[in-house]
Amino acid sequence: MTSIWLIANGRSGSTGEDAIRAAREKMEGLGASVTRFIDLAEEDLPDPGDTPPDAIASLGGDGTAHAVIARYGPDARLPLMILPGGTMNLLSGKLHGRDADVDAVLERLLRGAPVERRMPLLTGPGFASLVGVIAGPATAWGDVRENMREGGIGAVLEKMRDAISETFEGAPIRIAGMAGDHSAIFIEPQADGQLHAWSVQTEGLGDLAAHGWAWLNRDFLGGPTEKLTQDRVLTLESARRRIGLLVDGERKEADGPLRLEWAECPARFLATADA
Q: Per-residue pLDDT tens for 92-134?
């Protein structure tokens, strides 16, 4: 029988008691044994000690997954199961397909033939991304997404006005050593050992609408884009000291010039979709 530690954040809107109970019952119905449940809202992630479980399962969004990866990824004994329990589920989408729900993923993991996968990583000062980073003034749209998630229509409309203004009037960014300014650049770590960069084109409201719909569907290259370059190290520059970022969909800022590097994540991920 497979022993699993199940980790979730019980205070998250998407992984409340019902979702946690359903996932646990599904695992046990598939023959696994949930030997420990850790609620990130109540306790720190424990040391697995000398008798680790057969796998660690993260149920939640990308924030929960990153906490689990940071704690258990370096431990070669612990394969990680990343389950889609959040809003964006970007990492789970890469490992299992964008449309797979928790039940489908667990069926594949516990009854199918999952493969172990190592993931490329983008690293920057104080952050890392397994999915990709958007940089530039157009990342102000991340604030719109946050307000949509919280449900305040008045705040959403206000943030939309701010995001439109920032996209068209904010200080553009560029890749050091290359000509051309951009309102947004998407940078993705790929398995070839390089960071791949695309210009996210925002020449009018039509482009913004296309990107907004694509981003809501977790596709950062779904709107008009242009491939710029690829390299193991890329540096972003801006006239502003701070550069706006969306790191795996979450809003952040960093000082410029911003150096980004390719690395390999040490974690052992269990995947059920083709790379």
A: 989 999 888 999 999 999 998 899 999 999 999 999 999 999 9
Q: Is residue 69 part of a domain?
A: yes
Q: Could you tell me the residue range of the domain that residue 93 belongs to?
A: 3-113
Q: Give the whole-angstrom CA distance, residue 1 versus residue 145.
A: 41
- Please check whether residues 140 and 229 belong to one and the same domain: yes
Residue 266: what pLDDT? 95
Q: What is the pLDDT of residue 120?
A: 96
Percentage of the chain modeled with pLDDT above 70: 79
Q: Are 124 and 248 in contact (CB under 8 A)?
A: no
pTM value is 0.81
Per the structure, the count of domains in the chain is 2
Final residue of a structural domain among 87, 113, 139: 113
